[in-house]
Amino acid sequence: MRPIASSCGIPAVLFQTTGAAVTSFHFHKLLHPVSDLPSRGIFLRDHETSFRRVKAPSDDTHKSDQQFFDCSEQSTEILLIKSCREIEDKYIDFHFSLLSNQKRIIPLDALVKKPEEEEDDDNNHSQIIQWLNVKQKASTVFVSFGTECYLTKEEFQEIALGLEMSNVNFIWVVRTPNGEKTSELLPKGYLDRVKERGLIFEGWAPQAKILKHENIGGFVSHCGWGSLLESMSLGVPIIAVPMQYDQPSNARLVVEIGDGFEVVKGNDRKLNGAEVARIIKEVVVEDAGEGMRRTAKELAGPGK
Asked: 82, 18 in Cβ contact below 8 A?
């Protein structure tokens, strides 16, 4: 688009809404396909994909990376990125080093709405917050997989099993792609077994307001960049369950900076409920997660 903008005397500046870690990873692989990254923290496992849907051909990935790189190269003098140096300092610098014309990369911070600015349904909001108010501090996990990712029936049941096995309080925002009833996807008798410590909510919920609540102790997330930045800005540690696009690379970043742990799929490339439970307990309950919980608060800044 830069040639068209330039012909009209208008600067064209790219605003990159993905993080620097994932873009520098892909740009490096595009420019230096047989060379390892300087940092080994960001990587993809054999079954994982990024910047594309899971079943897309590999040549589409190369084309997508090339188009994205060309947009970065064409940005006029500067490149804006939705990130901050507290999270991605070395990757912002690495991204800069990969661009041939060495333009400035300007991080614009997390750019997330404040919880009080978030629109919500008063009835839905009050129902969730009233339920959460009676729980103990940092005792509850919030579970959400965003607006573009849908769990398979098998994944849905493994997440449900993991939440049950963890014995940790949870709020689970459920979305199904084909209007399936949640009760039909859950294991038999599940709602009765978890009714004292689990709230399953269909549709939309005020994510920022929930994450801000002092009784939330972790966020089970698909690792979409916006959700991660929101969680980090509020000091909530992350239980990473990545699926597609930039999410696997984002999950590696979460682990590298010490802001959470990842639920790693088994050799069969499937989620395992017992592993989901183990990571939830490690983040929210166990002493092993104390340093990570402290890091989450430090990333959010004073007062979190």
From this structure: yes
